[in-house]
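Agenda item 2: pyridoxal-5'-phosphate complex prediction
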Amino acid sequence: MTALQHLLLITHDGSGAATGTIDADAEHPHITVNDAGLTRGDGIFETYSVIRGRPQAFDAHLERFARSARMLDLPQPDPGIWRDAVLTVAQRLADHDEAWVRTIITRGEDGDDLLTGWVHGRPSPDFRRDRTEGVRIALLDRGLRSDVAQTSPWLLAGAKTLSYAINRAAVREANRRGADDVIFVSSDGFLLEGPTSTVVLRRGNTVVTPPTDFGILPGTTQGDLFAAAAEWGLTAAAEPLTPADLEAADAAWIVSSVRHVAPIRAVDGIERPIDASLSAAWNGFLYARHS
Ligand code: PLP
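Presented output:
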């Protein structure tokens, strides 16, 4: 039987430089109880979509990994070692139509200067239903202003850190409200992002997304869709957006690396139209991406 999960450990020296990779068994534990990634959520990650063994948005994920490292004062990830490790794990998943690969760096064991790093991959769940029928969204106040990244950079808004307990709690709250997922709203009333996704609205022939200086993650999926917007006769822009803009939009989506494009079919219990044909076109485009 072929393994479903694949794991490479990334070794580091005391200066924080990556030194190589070690094949490891993903079915067995490798992280110690003192690891700051576990005890503090102190680390960073990326999740790549992998189609038939091919990682997507490769450069954008590597760049964002490096950006998150800078924001957390972690040493820069060695692009060569991480790139090769992602490719290796991705290729081991080539028998699967859709899979994901996650890269993680933690600050390592307390009292030790060695970072912990690994690349882990496995087949993706089936997202066909989310992609075609859409998702129900709850709007939740994030409790932070849209200028939080400028006023309080230590809150790490817009870094892809391991501290996702809040993002998970928000989805549970959405579930309690009868919704599947969340769009966070800033305390000054602007749409931000989902706990694992970027918000995209269509108004006529324009697609819009909130600006990344609102303390949100620059989405690689939204980046690829917007770079190709002209293929669908669309112009693309980043601009401040409110819940009223979401209500008035012709169509709305949350987009992300592994689930790809999920149309929004309801907001706070109120049904809204979905754009099934653009959703299908975008999902087809994302599936066929070559990098
Ligand atoms: N925003 C947050 C907070 C995320 O965690 C993610 C992805 O997980 C995204 C946006 C979407 O980014 P990407 O399209 O690169 O997956």
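Discussion summary: Residues 58-71 form the longest helix (14 residues).
Owner for follow-up: CH.
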